[in-house]
């Protein structure tokens, strides 16, 4: 695979995430990317730096106000005098204006930055620091550079991005994600002339953001396997099997929730069902949301999938014979993240 990367993706350094009110160490760390890159370099993959791209696709996938918020909120936060404690210089929402709170009131933009912090974010785990915007925007450049390669005839490109993206909807970020790289890739492939694009999401968590971006559309299929949100797992409110699309998008969304403890055989059966769905859709290009947090050793999911099964998943997806762009999502076990990604790409490259 052609590997596309950017040093700027390392500038987002989440020192913490706040979960159930407790400040815990960050998990979506820069070392994830350096580990993956080292492994892929060792295996002889060609590595290319991202080229700058304009905001065109980004602003059609996301609400421009979300993009502007992410671009400016850290500086506004600091200018407003937050925070006072050293080492805690991170934007954290304190109030999220839920649909139930607003209850039909006219839409208003809050004056205070500490209120704006919750206007575009739906959890307390996804903090914004000094390098967050630069890294998230660099991930978009990496993704679009990889799209260019695929459109230019490269059969398999891999966007080595962080922060990840599949939890971001049109106007709300969360789940350690800020901008939806895979969604931007799918839209860019559509714009390049692919009439139908499939997104297959292998991350252990449901990609609620990507699903939401394309839920009403027939031209982008979203198909995902993930730990059952009904068993108490993030993102809790999306990822159920009865979510099959809406309006023009009916039938263009497939969720396969898996019980905690699901291991290779059942996981690969689910991969095959995703492959069949893509085949039936008539898609001419494939985006793989390549999270590797289903691995047995991963601290963030209860799935129990081996390195060999990741290779086999790549093999099965490769039988589609489609131009393919793999985009990095989650995966938090630093000791094995490199070999998990390398194994999946080895399968995809067959
Ligand atoms: C891209 C991706 O894989 N996002 C995953 C976000 C889900 N995170 C849920 C975290 C739930 C609690 N984790 C506690 C970890 C304490 N450090
Ligand atoms: Zn995940």
TrEMBL record:
User: Which Gene3D superfamilies does the record cross-reference, listed alphabetically?
Assistant: Histone deacetylase domain (3.40.800.20)
* Keywords linked to the UniProt accession: Hydrolase, Metal-binding, Zinc
Source organism superkingdom: Bacteria
InterPro entries in the record: HDACs, His_deacetylse_dom, His_deacetylse_dom_sf, Ureohydrolase_dom_sf
Can you give the residue ranges of the Histone deacetylase domain?
Answer: 31-347
CDD domains noted in UniProt: HDAC_classII_APAH
Needed cofactors, names only, are: Zn(2+)
Similarity remark: Belongs to the histone deacetylase family.
Know the name of this protein?
Histone deacetylase family protein
> Which species does the entry assign this protein to?
Longivirga aurantiaca
